[in-house]
């Protein structure tokens, strides 16, 4: 990792497609990149045919020639395995390698990622091409690292091929050993679903009302994640046989139905992220609704990346308008936005930023996915902005390797994430709460982390957070309850929202009083519950002197044990029922809140629990700006990012050094529209 | 039927799934039901695998054990045939039993009702399992009746398997005898559709613009109805071989593409209905639009059930929130709504009410379809409400067997119902009128019946109605015209709406002057007609001193024969044309109205024909309440049902006995939100 | 063509289906037509089975009998080939003749046009039936011409059968000769799409995000057009072997994915159009949005027809409500609208108008597609209107053969039309501009022509236009640039809109500075461009004293060479950048406008270029009326068409003869709602 995440400086890169351009242009392009501050190119992720133009015939000269040039001009290279786009000869000869829709109709050649992970043929041919790539190219001095495939689980993250059904059976036999255990876990007594032979089991197929057994779908999602991870690991294992010392293995994300944490742990040196905040401005996607965070929402994604690798790379950073010929019509980033979005990535921990892409492609689906340069490669405003960013980052070197600082965490786990995807009752509360918590934290300038747990988690990881939200812990296990309990006992404050604890790890509902395994920890009993009816009007909650609205659902609470009713509903037939119960456990406190969060209620929690706006003594900024702090030793680096087209008035309450200019700054300042400020405090 | 519809008392039941719970819980559950006033359980409708776990291997012990217990504790049982959910081994081995979509893609295992009625294999295996169920269990003393399959034609009521095409050909040969006759009936000269071989005919398949020949689709719908009925009759015939004296055969409905009247007549002792008024409050379905009747709309469905069996059972009555994991997000019924919806059923003639279900399922698609008890089975508000209902019904015993009373009828026939389904011109007027007539009748407290007719109907059945509406008799036959004529001649008042009489029984348009076979009866000619153009603005009709809006369509009328122009259009180019013609025939009168009904015009008709609010001298109630009268001998029983969350002020203009309290009541009273009142007059 | 487009008179016709009615009605129908002024019937387009009821068995008597009668009563006949609807026996025996959806699911018997053009079986059977039809019937004296098939490319204009893939490969081999050339043209280096064998190439199939290679789709669209044209030519060639002298060959259109110009040139004597302006009033389609042109939009279609044949026929003219049983719910045309829509056709150059259809069909999908007569064939308002139209046209005889007059043209070419269909960035600007230009021209009473060009075009064709708009010449070739240049050099004024010149003929983007091949001609450079961002608000342009809004896109312009910046953006970050550049070339001037057109900006261009309202010294009419001029020698014939239901006040500024009445007219006049005026000036 020495070449790009060394903790000593920031590095810029770009994505380059030697196969798209006449070789005569290569030298000019590479030299111009270097002159612009770009010192790394990623190549070859869609170039299988350049090395294996027909089955079993390998030829290396194309990239050899490119790498020779890279070494000559001094360009570093991230090399990719090409498995995201199988050649036409491959899918034509072996259609079983293709993914299918739920009706079994195959997805055909022409797009990307249309293969399935479980086809033995594809696995065999992929192994061979990765082995060929790695064994031939990995020793090249200009190469600094490898990207596996491209955007694993992008495009589609559900798979319905015949190979998937076969592999699913293996996965299930391994997990359950007997059909009896599987029938019990999946509750197949319901609707007479009982299986009497393993061959009767398939990946989801077409059913009435798309009503595949939900416990099966949960296992199926785990199976997809496993399939993708194993496919990545197969490649990582091969690459590592040939990897030069100091070179890294990564892949670019983040996509769904995939345990990115486990994949990172077992196959990668670090995760890279593809950041396209301009999606928010596509003509058909734009929303100016209240609470809509637009490009600032990408800070939520960057927080997800931080949960994988506190210091990470951006493999693809927006550098022009995005668009396909078939959909997505996006404007060109306005002057300043490219810098803004780069600094957004850096603020969250990106020490490597690679722009997608150098030249805009002149052919195919992505002719409107603009790179730094337009079709003509003329000098333009955006390459000028890249040079300016490069200069800014030069002044920020000492910050490299510093870590984003947060005292608040939001707990997540893949079981609940995946359950909320398929279960609309779970999804509705979770979507509302996740969106509201993010907005409340962002707008109140309260930095936070996502914290992923599983049955093997160590409570130690949690203890650095003063407050943890676990919005809807629908699925709960004894192991996780123990982790949470240990966190609270040690002095932590845990806030759990409605609909928690009513499912076990298979997604089956527990027959205990709710919130099940969380009753004791939260001192809470739930004798009754309901969606807030569509004719209910505004349902309110009173917590001491604060009254706010409940959202989506109402668990009607009663304290048990040492539990204390902190807040009550004040409307509809729930009036008087408990809406919030607290429970002192050890040195800490656990709260159970009976509803989903909205921005208003989330803000009340942040205030009441005294974690809101931790930097209010450092800087005063309006809601329209994000702030972030990266910390390294005793140094703190403050980012102020203005997402608005209008200028913002801020006040720096301490003296600091503006890292763009090197000058001391403090007091009242104006941040222009889309501008950013980076201050060493 | 002695056990539940004996005319002497009301009986409560519930739906129970022994296969979902540890056997250890069975006794506790049954005893607790009995203690709550529940004396019947329905079981086994999704339990094929419990008796035939693998092909041809039968084992009866599971339900033997349950029935032993039922007999021990004194619980009555409605036993079901299990054909709604074929076992996994069956559909895996014989995929031809599955239903398919119109493209031929099979619907797979995991949901329910995914079989097709016409598969010889499924018919054979169904016969065998029904024979096994009936022969083994029917003699058990605790069994009081049988339910065939479950919700016939629910989930999907169109079938596109290969077996369906084969059976469709048999159905058509039987109906038409020759291809010439079929070609003529289907008008295949249009678009060169002529068939020259029976094998060229298929159930509808994928066509451009989904434009299968409409006359074929009409026959296809009749074919589906036939297929479903025959499947039910096959089971009924088997069950009746083993049925204990006094036991009944039923099934639960009501679903589309099925002649429920014929099925009831040939296979059932009575129909049972599954009533879920809370569907109106699902988050994604709720509408508060003007004229939206919400849960009160279920009275329309109950009126349909009454047309099949004046006294009937509710096999599944809402007892908690409804929801699937994949869709439907419904609130828990508010305090009182469960009673309200039970009394809504009772008001219309339900003497048996069975709650779906006892415990909420902890697994599968229906984890959110709440029963009386929640997952934990703890005591809760809803089981308290069941006990309270039980007590209320104890006081109402003398009403059992009484009949809903109505002087207004709405005529329906399956040919027009099915034609309106597929013909958007027919459907648009019919949907508008049916909705408007129901709303006007409900809101004006004018009880009504649905009256189904066909070519074999007897005019006697109609004579008890003072006024009959036949909103859009698009398809008309000589036989039906004669029935209507006999009704009018005998003194009845018949109101027919626009677009009547222009199709024959095959759905082909007649080449006569319109309204075709109805011209003479109504004294009406229609020289011109049109949809009301979208730029027409408000089109008005004047009838004596009343002016109201026309809806959707305008037949421009001229009286012929003894016809009299009662009302005229007063706007657009139709101004001056006839909008309503009356014709005295014998002792009665027939009206032809040139438009579809809206709530306003429907109300004018009720007033002008003097049938509105027949109980206005008995009780004065606001629009928000439904009233119903059940009659038995000289006794009349008045129901007042408040669907609103706010209290209603009513005035009882006669003295009566409140059957909940046994006390005499009269004069001004307040009915609280969701409350009900039952008074013996 | 002598019989209907002879330049001496107007002829009325109708569409008749002898196979739909008892033969006993034929004579009555034909005689009644003649009595109403109808002297031509079109027959047999869906009647394959009447001549070949089973495979290879031919029988001619049905139409022989009809033609005998036609000749007896003096009715002229347009005979059709029946290939639009293959018989049931054909598609059942040879399913390979069917079209399929993109997943390969076949479209089945029952609708029309469900065949594919490239099936060798269908080609063979079509050739045979056409040969049989033509050889047997073409000599009949009553026949005056032939219609090939029916509405070629209607219903579906994409084809995905196996035969299509095979034929596509032949088309591509013919076009590219080598896979290397194809790979280059399609840019298959993108996403590793490179083809190594012709068999790997297919018509588009199911891909992720429907993202088939756009250059392939462009070629595929050309291939569809070719396939349709060849199918028509195959028939035309056969018919012409048997055609009587003076008889014509036509087909009815216009439909997409078809080069109608090439088809007309190679296969037809002239094109006929099917005109149904009442589509605008379907209940589910009606829009009253500002700028919505409703039925007047059909003048845009008629302008397209004029670009094919300045004098043409209407093969199907709206004569009643339109509708299918499955969708389309349209009102009956109001009194006057049928005349209005007929005169709309005539105003644009229709000398033959044939009403669809005589009697309304009583069966099948089109029971609501009303003809002149209703189901009963009684006399009605619409047949009275036909007679009145006939009389009006009698007075207009001298106008026959006259030509629509326009000084403004809008340039189109199929490459850009098809590219805009599949490329949403191209489509969005083009749709906006085409709609706006039409509206601005119509509302300002500025007649215009569509002018289609291709690489073989001659600049002479363009020189009759004072001003030509080429709204978005995205695809540009050297040949076309030369044609445009020659037009400008000769004194023409050319206006080109944004996004021009950035693609080559394969749809690949050029690597030149933009607008590429158009830079020199327009004196324009485009250093930067963007969609107007959804949060941009109103983006304005200032041109001298006029300020107006830009639309959709902003090319930021800089003049080069002799170019002159005529207008600038005045808002957002584009403020100050060029919005309009002009360039004097020879005697003319070329303009490059950096945005798409809206009604406001289009009107400013018409004014500034001094071509607006050329007849303002002849007649003064409100926006609600269309005006058109047909010219013959020195005579000019003025049409005023009032599309509104309200009367319009006009002033005729010259004396003329009202051709309906023969009287001299001038000065102030009122045109009633839906009325028309035709004046010889």
UniProtKB/TrEMBL annotation, chains A, B, C:
Its EC number is 3.2.1.23. Pfam families: Glyco_hydro_42, Glyco_hydro_42C, Glyco_hydro_42M. CDD domains: A4_beta-galactosidase_middle_domain (cd03143). The keyword Cytoplasm does not apply. GO terms for cellular component: beta-galactosidase complex. Residues 15-394 form the Glycoside hydrolase family 42 N-terminal domain. Residues 437-609 form the Beta-galactosidase trimerisation domain. Residues 626-680 form the Beta-galactosidase C-terminal domain. It catalyses: Hydrolysis of terminal non-reducing beta-D-galactose residues in beta-D-galactosides. One of its GO terms (biological process) is galactose metabolic process. It comes from the Bacteria. Belongs to the glycosyl hydrolase 42 family. This is Beta-galactosidase. It comes from Parablautia muri.
């Amino acid at each position: 990792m020495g070449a790009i995440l060394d903790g000593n400086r920031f590095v810029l890169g770009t994505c380059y497609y030697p196969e798209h351009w006449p070789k005569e242009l290569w030298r000019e392009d590479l030299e111009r990149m270097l002159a612009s501050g770009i010192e790394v190119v990623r190549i070859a992720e869609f170039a299988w045919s350049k090395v294996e133009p027909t089955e079993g015939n390998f030829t290396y000269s194309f990239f050899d020639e490119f790498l020779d040039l890279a070494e000559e001009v001094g360009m570093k290279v991230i090399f990719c395995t090409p498995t995201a786009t199988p050649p036409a000869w491959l899918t034509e000869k072996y259609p079983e390698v293709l993914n299918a829709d739920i009706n079994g109709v195959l997805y055909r050649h022409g797009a990307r990622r249309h293969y399935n992970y479980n086809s033995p043929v594809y696995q065999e041919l992929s192994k061979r091409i990765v082995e060929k790539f790695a064994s031939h190219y990995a020793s090249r001095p200009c190469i600094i690292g490898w990207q596996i495939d491209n955007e694993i689980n992008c495009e589609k993250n559900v798979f319905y091929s015949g190979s998937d059904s076969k592999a699913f059976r293996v996965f299930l036999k391994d997990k359950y050993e007997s059909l009896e255990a599987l029938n019990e876990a999946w509750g197949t007594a319901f609707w007479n679903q009982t299986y009497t032979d393993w061959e009767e089991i398939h990946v989801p197929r077409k059913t009435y009302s798309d009503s595949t057994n939900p416990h099966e779908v949960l296992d199926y999602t785990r199976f997809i994640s496993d399939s993708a991870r194993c496919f990545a690991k197969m490649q990582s294992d091969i690459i590592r046989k040939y990897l030069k010392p100091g070179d890294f293995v990564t892949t670019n994300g983040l996509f769904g139905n995939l345990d990115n944490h486990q994949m990172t742990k077992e196959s990668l040196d670090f995760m890279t992220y593809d950041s396209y905040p301009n999606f928010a401005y596509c003509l058909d996607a734009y929303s100016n609704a209240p609470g809509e965070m637009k490009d600032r929402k990408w800070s939520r994604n960057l927080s997800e990346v931080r949960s994988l690798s506190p210091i990470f790379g951006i493999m693809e950073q927006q550098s022009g308008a995005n668009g396909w010929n078939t959909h997505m019509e996006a404007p060109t980033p306005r002057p300043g936005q490219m810098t803004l979005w780069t600094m957004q990535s850096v603020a969250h921990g990106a020490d490597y930023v690679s722009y997608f892409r150098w030249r805009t492609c002149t052919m195919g689906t992505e002719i409107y996915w603009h790179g730094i340069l337009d079709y003509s490669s003329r000098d333009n405003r955006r390459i000028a902005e890249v040079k300016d960013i490069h200069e800014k980052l030069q002044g920020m070197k000492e910050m490299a390797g510093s870590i984003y600082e947060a005292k608040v965490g939001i707990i997540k786990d893949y079981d609940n994430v995946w359950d909320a995807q398929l279960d609309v009752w779970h999804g509705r509360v979770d979507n509302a709460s996740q969106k509201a918590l993010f907005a409340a934290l962002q707008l109140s300038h309260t930095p936070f982390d996502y914290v992923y747990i599983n049955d093997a988690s160590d409570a130690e990881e949690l203890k650095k957070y003063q407050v943890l939200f676990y919005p809807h812990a629908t699925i709960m296990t004894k192991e996780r309850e123990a982790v949470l309990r240990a966190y609270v006992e040690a002095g932590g404050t845990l806030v759990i929202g409605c609909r928690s604890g009513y499912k076990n790890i298979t997604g089956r509902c527990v027959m205990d009083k709710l919130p099940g395994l969380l009753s004791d920890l939260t001192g809470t009993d739930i004798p009754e519950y309901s969606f807030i009816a569509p004719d209910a009007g505004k349902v309110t909650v009173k917590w001491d002197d604060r009254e706010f609205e409940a959202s989506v659902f109402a668990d009607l609470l009663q304290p048990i044990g040492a539990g204390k009713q902190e807040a009550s509903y004040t409307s509809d037939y729930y009036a008087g029922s408990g809406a919030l119960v607290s429970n002192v456990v050890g040195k800490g406190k656990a709260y159970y809140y009976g509803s989903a969060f909205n921005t208003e209620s989330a803000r009340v929690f942040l205030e009441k629990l005294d974690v809101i706006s931790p930097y209010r003594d450092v800087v005063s900024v309006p809601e329209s700006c994000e702030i972030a702090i990266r910390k390294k030793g005793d140094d703190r680096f403050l980012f102020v990012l203005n997402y608005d087209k209008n200028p913002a008035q801020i006040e720096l309450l301490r003296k600091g050094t503006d890292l763009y200019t090197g000058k001391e700054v403090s007091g009242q300042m104006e941040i222009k529209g889309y501008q950013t400020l980076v201050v060493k405090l």
